[in-house]
Amino acid sequence: MSAGEDSLGAPGVLGETEPKFHVVETEDEMGRPAKGLARAVSNNTSDDSVRPVLVDFLSGKMRHRLRPGADHEFLVKAIGLKKSDRVEASGRPVLVCDFTAGLGTDAFLMAQAGFQVVAFERDPLVYALLLDGLKRYRAHESELGLMPIGLEFRQADVALTDVAQRKALAERLELDFGRRPYAVVLDPMFEEGNTKTKSKPKKEMATFREMLHPSSESELRCLLETALQVGERRVLVKRPVGALPISGDIRPLNRREAKTAAYDVYACREV
């Protein structure tokens, strides 16, 4: 993909007067060719002062997080299934959906914990980064003869307002995987009016935040209602520590809190 082909300034991401972003050729930490997201300063050049944002499941940071395995991850614990229960009687791994893939970290960690994960991302450029990162990880698996993890990414906006569309999504997943997802995870990274951030993001993540438009309260409610209709048992919504649950009539059953984040846990039901 060339920089010119992948320039972005479309409605739903940023307005035409805002800086544009495009996918560029770069390298990951292992020196492998990779695709990254960079800010464009003109139609043919990028801002070289900030390293492109990329999806790197083989980064040193990720390897460090997985050194003790993924079972210690807060999200994995919040799903509520011990390792022996993440495999169904049929031998298939338990299915989980991630409705807000972002850079894929949560989806990747859940897959490393033994779940079958399908993650959705609405932004086409971020989706391209996810596919590129997964492609490089698949090559790594093949080189080492590792059993492939159960992970795939799909491009879709699942903040659905129509009940029929939500039902169609649930039926599509059940047709593709033979069952409904046990849990659905939501991590609305950037929200309108949310100032509860613990620290200033690094330059590359600041670029990522600048590119993605924040989720409105109405979008969050639509995401939650879709997740509750699609999921079988529970929906987990990541929240900043001290933040209120998503507004609306649907309230969480409980909240699981750690030092830096919390998960509101909802019971799945027809909405």
Helix content: 25-40%
Q: Round the mean pLDDT to the nearest integer and report it.
A: 85
For the terminal residues, how far apart are their CA atoms? 41 Å
Spatial arrangement of strands, main beta sheet: 5-4-3-6-7-9-8
Helix and strand element order: EEHHEHEHEHEHHEEE
Low-confidence stretches: 1-18, 195-201
Fourth-tier CATH superfamily name: Vaccinia Virus protein VP39
Report on the biggest sheet: 7 strands, mixed
Keywords, please?
7 helices, 9 strands, two-stranded antiparallel ribbon, 271 residues, globular, seven-stranded mixed beta sheet, 29% helix, alpha/beta, Rossmann fold, 19% strand
Summarize this structure briefly.
With 271 residues, the protein is of the alpha/beta class. It is 29% helix and 19% strand.
Topology readout:
Elements: E1 20-27, E2 33-40, H1 60-65, H2 74-79, E3 95-98, H3 105-112, E4 116-121, H4 124-144, E5 151-155, H5 163-177, E6 183-186, H6 203-211, H7 217-230, E7 234-239, E8 254-257, E9 262-267
Helix pairs in contact: 5-7
